[in-house]
């Protein structure tokens, strides 16, 4: 699998082959020669790369990022992607996200609810190359389906599904099966991988719109 | 059907109007907005479009965050204490008003319902005028209490979304008020949250002549009140634990954690299952 242009494997101290992007440091991560370490243990998209999934992401892509939180992962995405729309619902993390956006010309922070795309459809352009989804709410499949309208026909959904957000008591494998079944209403699932050891009870999914 | 982008209907060069459109606008479906903006002559090219969009989204989001954070816990504390005071005052005034009204009218019900009934009547004497006016006061106090309660119900989820999700908005607000604020509540140990509102019983226990209280105001939660008395202490302890975590998440991170509710449900199911054994 190939990394998008703008994401490289670099050496940090005695560690080789560590993911990194070029940009302003955002959260105290190590920087060597202008490359910021992208820790797969702190970022589900980073883990998705480490797991070897072909995300189909390319340098300069237009990206809609759902569940941006305080901007840890979004900062790396904006480093290699083109216009990046970062949607997050909770006000406190968005304060950090705004700081991340200060040094990134094409990162657009939005305090909006990913379950209500009509509240940002007047801002986010259609035909984005990728939707990156990491929302820890019940109804993750519905979020992906209702945001499909933003995606180009040849675009990709790169999602980190969290089993415990749907049902803490159920077996994660059963939750994932159910979520993938519902995703198939609007997407064709291309690849999946459990995210252990980086993130527990998460499933990385790459899908294309049907 | 709305098919306008954020830049339509506003001079996109007016920063305030553009930010407001980003915040409050909506559309049924996205379109190729950069191309549309160039076509409409709003901007010269996509680069200028993205520069404008960057200014507008950052201003809009900064303003939205500030407003959401201003919905602060102290307003909630005032509202909760107001509800308690108004309840007492409304009942006390209604009691006096109804007692007076009964000497003038037949068939007046007890309490605020009786006062409300009399409040609508027209007076035929100066005496009736006074009694009816007092009934109107009692009714007005009760109405204001209801409005304060409505305020708590809509504002508690903004101030403390996770705590409100688990406890319900009114109990969430009462816990915040008893602790003195969300930051104070977030610093309390779970065992203290469990007995908030039962201070009399707690100090009687500490003085050594009463059993320890099992619960304070969290008694009003269905998971405590609706649990068999033998298991109620366990239920109160489990609920207080989750409420404490919820208050801390609300204060320190502000994230939504739907997992908490499912975890609480699962825990309660196990505790309640014991009573049938």
From TrEMBL, chain A:
S-adenosyl-L-methionine binds at residues 72-73, 88-89, 113-114, 134-137. Keywords: Methyltransferase, RNA-binding, rRNA processing, Transferase, tRNA processing. PROSITE patterns: FIBRILLARIN. The keyword Cell membrane does not apply. Its EC number is 2.1.1.-. GO terms for molecular function: histone H2AQ104 methyltransferase activity; RNA binding; rRNA methyltransferase activity. It comes from the Archaea. GO terms for biological process: box C/D sno(s)RNA 3'-end processing; tRNA processing. SMART domains: Fibrillarin (SM01206). The keyword Transferase applies. Involved in pre-rRNA and tRNA processing. Utilizes the methyl donor S-adenosyl-L-methionine to catalyze the site-specific 2'-hydroxyl methylation of ribose moieties in rRNA and tRNA. Site specificity is provided by a guide RNA that base pairs with the substrate. Methylation occurs at a characteristic distance from the sequence involved in base pairing with the guide RNA. Belongs to the methyltransferase superfamily. Fibrillarin family. Interacts with nop5. Component of box C/D small ribonucleoprotein (sRNP) particles that contain rpl7ae, FlpA and nop5, plus a guide RNA. This is Fibrillarin-like rRNA/tRNA 2'-O-methyltransferase. The gene is fib.
Automatic annotation (TrEMBL), chain B:
One of its GO terms (molecular function) is methyltransferase activity. SUPFAM superfamilies: Nop domain. The keyword Methyltransferase applies. One of its GO terms (biological process) is methylation. InterPro entries: Nop_C, Nop_dom, Nop_dom_sf, Prp31. Residues 159-273 form the Nop domain. It holds the Pfam family Nop. Keywords: Methyltransferase, Transferase. This is rRNA biogenesis protein Nop56/Nop58. It comes from Halobacterium salinarum (strain ATCC 33171 / DSM 3754 / JCM 8978 / NBRC 102687 / NCIMB 764 / 91-R6). The gene is nop5.
